[in-house]
Structures are given as C-alpha cells and as structure tokens.
Amino acid sequence: MIVVLLGYMGSGKSTVGQLLAENLGINFLDLDDYIEQNQKTTISEIFNSKGEIYFRTLESEAVKQICNQSDSLVLALGGGTPCYADTMQFLVNHPNVVTITLNVPIKNLSQRLINEKAKRPLIANLKDDDIPEFIAKHLFERSSYYNQAEIGIKTDALSVEDIVAKITLKLL
Ligand code: S3P
Q1: What is the arithmetic mean of pLDDT over 144-167?
Q2: Which of 32, 74, 107, 152 is least buried, going by the fewest C-beta atoms within 10 A?
Q3: Mean pLDDT (whole number) for 91-117
Q4: Cβ(7) to ligand 1 under 6 A?
Q5: Assign residue 51 a region: left if phi > 0, alpha if psi is -120 to 50, beta otherwise?
C-alpha cells in the first residue's frame, strides 16, 4: 500500500507522514525533498530559475514514477501537487494508492505559514496580514482536488499522535 498525504501548505503532511510511516513500519518520502535531491537545488530556486510550470511538470512526473516503483510507502505531496495535470486522477485510480487529505482550519494554516513563509515561493513575498485571505482564496480553488481523496481527516485541535491514530483506524 502507498499512503499518499495531500493538503494545503502547512497542513502537517510531512510531520504526520513521518510518524505514520514509523507506526506502519514502512518508508516515508517527502515529494519536495525528493525533487530537491534529484534536481540538486531548492524548490525556491526551481521556481526562480525555471518557473512554476516547470516545477509542476517535475512534481507530476515524480509522483507517477514513485507510485509505479514502490510497493509500500507513505508519500507526502506538496500542497499543489494534486491540483495540476492529471495527477489526482492518476492517484485515485492507482490500485495500490490510498489518498488522504489533511484538513486544517485557515486560522491555524495562517499562523503556521506566517512563521515559515520564507521557504515557500508562493507566499514568500506576501505581507503577513495578507496571508489569511490568500489562503482562503487558494484553498477555495484547490478544495475540489483535495476533496477527491478517499479519506479526509479533520485535524483541528488534534495532536500529531491523534491524527496518526485516526488515519490508522481508517486504513484498517
Ligand atoms: C506548494 C507547496 C509546497 C511546495 C511548493 C508549492 C503549493 O509544499 O511544493 O512551495 O503549491 O502549495 P508544502 O505543501 O510541503 O509546503
């Protein structure tokens, strides 16, 4: 089984994914890290030098390659990965993939992202005060993709351990 975690930037995909993989006894892979290692540069640098569309193509190709080559894995996508090309369709139709969306309230996403915006090119240049509205609009555009996941997890006030426990129950 390949467990694929989706959700907006700052929704906790990597943190939750690492603990989930540990509990399931399988490997964890973060798509952004995978792309950075393969391209030998950072996501911000790829956006700056080659542009967003180039990055979206890399993401889409990487997801397909990973899912077609692995048997068991927890894979954390980037926030935009399922929203471009036919990636979401590919994931939902893949016989070995289970898709899970982490749903986090805008207020919590805003707090997290204001503290960590530097490494995220889509928000790095926004004023802190403009971030909540940006997230609200962006989530509105992306939610039709996130909602296609087989499992949706409301993370609200839950700890990482509780989120992982909730996911594990749904996977049984
Ligand atoms: C992006 C999310 C980022 C990264 C890139 C674009 C997005 O990943 O892939 O900055 O479009 O939402 P995280 O969701 O891991 O921050």
Answers
A1: 96
A2: 107
A3: 96
A4: no
A5: left
